[in-house]
Amino acid sequence: MAQVALKGNPVTVDGTLPTPGSEAPAFTLVGEGLADKSLKDFAGKRKVLNIFPSVDTPTCAASVRKFNTEAAELADTVVLCISADLPFAQARFCGAEGLDNVKTLSTLRGREFHTDYGVAIVDGPMAGLTARAVVVLDENDKVLHAELVNEIAEEPNYEAALSALK
Q: Count of CB atoms within 10 A of residue 130's CB?
């Protein structure tokens, strides 16, 4: 178990964050129209997994906006924004914001993703949601970069994540 913070208060996170050089754990989550979407659905593309608790928080929304902007300039790369939000809420947010360079996935199903990716919040007011993390994969699902953000209320290190793709 790891420990992060939420506005300075300790939060326990279960599971193991994938490490650079390892193969990313397979997953199946929920995409647009409640369709199952697996890691295999993005085969052959580099992937940025932007993992966060909910798009309805300012920091999470900021990360989706930032990765949407950056994704437009990344060749053969898909940005997957992963949260507990229902696909309807994710689509509504992206539509209202005009964000079309990211794909959203919900942990509505496939909850093993939480522990497989080391982001399962197990205590505190956000228990059951995911901690903030970014995992970058190459086209063969090898982990290039992984960051579990120490303070959930802060944005990830975009520069470190994106430089893993250069």
A: 25
Per the annotation, the verdict on 60 as an active-site residue is yes
Residue in 24, 60, 133, 149 annotated catalytic? 60
Distance CA 19, CA 22 (A): 6
> What's the pTM value of the predicted model, to 2 decimals?
0.94
Task: Please name the residues in contact with 60: beta carbons below 8 A apart, sequence gap of 6 or more.
Answer: 52, 53, 54, 83, 132
**CB contact set of 136 (below 8 Å; sequence gap of 6+):** 46, 47, 48, 49, 143, 144, 145, 146, 161, 164, 165
Of 53, 55, 65, 61, the closest CA to residue 133 belongs to: 53
The β-bridge partners of 38 are 28
The torsion of the CA quartet 33, 36, 42, 46, rounded to 10 degrees, works out to 90
Would you give the distance in Å from CA 69 to the centre of its chain?
A: 16
Cβ contacts of 41 within 8 Å, gap of 6 or more: none
Could you tell me if 139 and 61 are in contact, meaning their C-beta atoms sit under 8 angstroms apart?
A: no
- Report mean pLDDT in 10-residue bins for the chain, 166 residues: 92 96 98 96 96 92 90 89 95 90 94 97 95 97 97 95 91
